[in-house]
């Protein structure tokens, strides 16, 4: 596909320039936070990252499908889809990212998994009407300035009865109704991660695409992300020092490191910020 629209170019640039940084977080290519549950070692990120994958897949109901197409929208380097294709070999995973660098890296990592990669904008999907069975946005819909338009496009390609699952951080009220200190913290995270602003959870609960979507699950799971988020501060500091020593810090890399350093503070603002998994069913 062609270059992204001008208003989406910063997102593509961000992921292109910070591609190497994510190997610090996960050698497998995971770009999201991990989900902790009892008996998981909070010092090990990999099991928590994979547990988040399983949580999303369970809320999508992938284990109930004998065949079908699953859309990974905002897929990064495709790690979640590759994991899913090993768990559910009967399903076809289609993974899309706006970043050409991520697509190239995903294809380099690809082996025999049933995953097809696409470079494009999830506001305009290259799939025919009612051709997919499930779709998910794992910490990616936050990049959209018009989330209902993105969801409407996903609804177009989903079959009736299909599900959409999204996970993201949400603000709990309009930004101007929060404290000045919180506004500084949340902007330091959002803008440095190429996120216009995190969506409001009360508005998200009402996303229905002209009654074609129905909210079937709303799970607030921020505390379960805490153990993995604690890894971000020291990893960002060490990686930042390494980049400064090598004198190879790109503009978006520095912004990414700044945002990562603020994530713990953001997570502590439970009054104004929560992390939710939302599941919708296509009517």
Question: How would you describe this structure to a colleague?
Answer:
α1 packs across α10, α7 packs across α10 and α9 (222-246) packs antiparallel against α10. The chain is 41% helix and 20% strand. It has a 7-stranded mixed β-sheet. The longest helix has 25 residues, at 222-246. β4 (132-138), α6 (147-157) and β5 form a beta-alpha-beta unit. The two termini are 30 Å apart. The protein is globular, with a radius of gyration of 18 Å. The protein has helices at residues 9-17, 22-25, 45-60, 79-87, 100-109, 147-157, 180-190, 201-204, 222-246, 251-268; strands at 68-73, 91-97, 115-119, 132-138, 158-171, 213-220, 273-282. It contains 10 helices and 7 strands. The chain has a single domain, classed as Vaccinia Virus protein VP39 (Rossmann fold), CATH 3.40.50. The protein has 283 residues and is of the alpha/beta class.
């Amino acid at each position: 596909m062609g270059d992204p629209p001008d208003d989406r170019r910063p997102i593509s640039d961000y992921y292109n320039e910070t591609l190497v940084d994510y190997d610090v977080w996960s050698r497998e290519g995971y770009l999201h936070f991990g989900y902790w549950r009892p008996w998981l070692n909070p010092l090990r990120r990999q099991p928590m990252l994979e547990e988040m994958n399983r949580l999303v897949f369970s809320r999508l109901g992938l284990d109930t499908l004998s065949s079908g197409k699953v859309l990974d929208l905002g897929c990064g380097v495709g790690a979640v889809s590759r994991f899913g294709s090993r768990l559910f070999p009967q399903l076809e995973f289609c993974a899309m990212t706006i970043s050409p660098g991520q697509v190239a890296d995903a294809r380099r990592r690809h082996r025999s998994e049933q995953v097809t990669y696409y470079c494009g904008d999830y506001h305009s999907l290259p799939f025919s009407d009612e051709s997919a069975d499930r779709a998910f946005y794992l910490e990616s819909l936050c990049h959209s300035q018009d989330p209902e338009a993105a969801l409407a496009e996903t609804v177009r390609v989903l079959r009736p009865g299909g599900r959409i699952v999204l996970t993201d951080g949400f603000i709990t009220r309009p930004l101007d109704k929060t404290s000045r200190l919180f506004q500084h913290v949340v902007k330091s995270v959002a803008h440095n991660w190429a996120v216009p602003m995190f969506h409001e959870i009360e508005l998200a609960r009402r996303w229905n695409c002209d009654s074609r979507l129905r909210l079937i699950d709303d799970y607030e799971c921020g505390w379960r992300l805490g153990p993995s988020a604690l890894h971000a501060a020291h990893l960002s500091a060490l990686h930042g020092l390494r980049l400064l020593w090598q004198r190879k810090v790109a503009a978006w890399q520095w912004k990414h490191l700044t945002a990562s350093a603020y994530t713990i503070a953001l997570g502590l603002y439970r009054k104004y910020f929560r992390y939710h998994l939302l599941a919708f069913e296509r009517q």
